[in-house]
Amino acid sequence: MDRNQISKWLKNPGKMAHKYSFHVVYFCTGCGIIEIPPSITTRWDAERFGIIPVATPRQANLFLITGYVSTKTLKAIIRTYEQMPEPKYTVAFGSCPINGGMYYDSYNTITSLDKYIPVDGYIAGCMPRPEAVFIGVTHLWKLIDMDKADGYKRYREDYVHYRANQEQLYGQMDWPPLFPVEKKEQANL
Amino acid sequence: MVSLKEKLLSDFEGLKIDDREADRLFIDTQKEAVLSLLSYLKKAGYNHLAMVSCTDWIDEGKFELVYIVNAYLSGDQVFGKKEKKCIVIRTKISRQSARFMTVMEIFENAEPYEREMHEMFGIDFEGHPRLTPLMLERDYKIPPFRKDFDTLNYVNNTFGKIPSIEQRKEGLK
Question: B142 CA to chain A: closest CA distance, Å?
């Protein structure tokens, strides 16, 4: 263990433990998922950074969106994100979740992901190499240290707006709201 | 021995056969002859329908349907070893009344291809048991793979009109 970090560990052990044990939910979307097998296996070995993939969102706290998001996939992404326990962090890969990328005029690919779920960080590139993934993760550590990776807090606070955007896209949603949505605020929108 | 091309030309009328490529035989035909041609080829040993596809020629006002049949079994009398392995049948149907017959009686695996074409191009296949949505969830006024579907306009009107969270918050105040 790094001696310089002992004070941090004593100050906030829970946060440090979260930081160094990212459990990534196995969720494949788009083309970026092809970068994940080399990242987690021997060549780049993501476990050096404490990253390990898990099978279910109930055990995960890091969500990697690995590429373009079609409207059908977004439904699954929202459901998976809502199932993850807090604190949870989202990192989006590549240019497609930022503004659509090369799918900017596709008939079923959404153009910006952060209208529907909060995103803590973006890794630019098409596609980012595994090194870029690890640089993104170390940046996420810094954000967690500074309490700036607050996507899950924003999701709780602004859930009315996120839910309103999701309903504007899908019409009727198949599942009830995660947090209570007041009817009055919805009517004002 | 008579080659497959000569046999086809003697048995069917109005075929245009192109055999310049090494492995493939292209047959351009009228839409009435497709079903009989497919069953003929199936009997001749081309017993695998690999692909059914569609092209939108908007300037001509036609849809071009493409059926690709392959041969994996040899030894039949008609299908000699020197014959080509892959046959491409192309036919054109009207774009206005996009209707065609299903080929499921001959090749049953045409079902998902025809459902997909019904969904993406709006072609009705008569005799198909279930032309229900296969992949798309949203409603589109024009089927999205037609050339007159304006994708950029559609994106601006649907995804582009959804406000960001900051805009929503400002709208509340």
Answer: 11
